Amino acid sequence: MEKLKETVDFDSYVDDFLPQPDSDDGCEGGADKKRRRLTQKNLFQLWGLENPNLDLRPSTATSLASRKNQQRLCPFYKRIPGTPFTVDAFCYGSVKGCSAYFLSHFHADHYIGLTKGWSHGPIYCTNLTARLLRICLYVSPSFICPLELGTEYSLNGIKITMLDANHCPGAALIHFRLPNGQCYLHTGDFRASKLMQSYPVLASQRINILYLDTTYCNPKYRFPSKEDVLEFVVGVTRRYLNNHPKTIVVVGAYSIGKEHVYSAISKALGQLYEGIKGLRANELLEKKYIDHFAADETALLL
Known about the structure:
Order of helices and strands: HHHEEEHEHEEEEEHEHEHEHE
Helix content: 25-40%
Number of strands: 13
CATH class of the largest domain: Alpha Beta
Protein name: DNA cross-link repair protein pso2/snm1
Radius of gyration: 24 Å
Oligomer: single chain
Number of helices: 9
Organism: Solanum tuberosum
Largest sheet: 5 strands, mixed
InterPro entries: RibonucZ/Hydroxyglut_hydro
């Protein structure tokens, strides 16, 4: 695979950080400790931290203040190599060399750093996420560039396609195709489904680099499909209400992200109320999520 400018050399990366065989000099313990220190140092440097052994305990008010004012460096895994783009990298201020900031979805651990005072560059995201940025975070519309799902766009000669991530409303996989044919896919947070295999841009083009959240990247995590989960939740709710018809069903939720759950309950069992906290965000959601929301003296309190 041709290496692009600023692309991480993954072969040398692996060689640097995999444990090496013990030396024959009879100092295995010392050699191991030395290797561990070097590994940590190299990894921190790769993340853009100049001094991994820095003592973070504040010794004086002056040193603490200076650290607070020190700008954090954007790590390599938030940059798209060979492009002036970053993804979910809003807490690093103005990122050197970045001309476009992509947001995968509207969850706080991804948009952290975005405020109404954002002025570092254009933000590219889906239409729904753009609406949430404007109304929930008061980000200036002049910095928000909404993109339609499934539509290919060209920016600085690079083809960009946002794909439904099957996560919260507005969440997207972001596909980048460079002029030399290299293709990168940034997943943000997503829930894999068979439908994704039919996305034309994924079915027809090889992915050269995949940016993947590995939180649950372990065979022990085998989650049921979203459809199975919704069927289970509706079944449990229906059985309980049959036995206790005056029960108020409360569904815990983020500001966005659980719409499928209470929409499925509502479709199966009747009307619902929304809690005050979730109302404002859900007013912004696409119509398919609010068809069954109604103000009536019945069934579900969320």
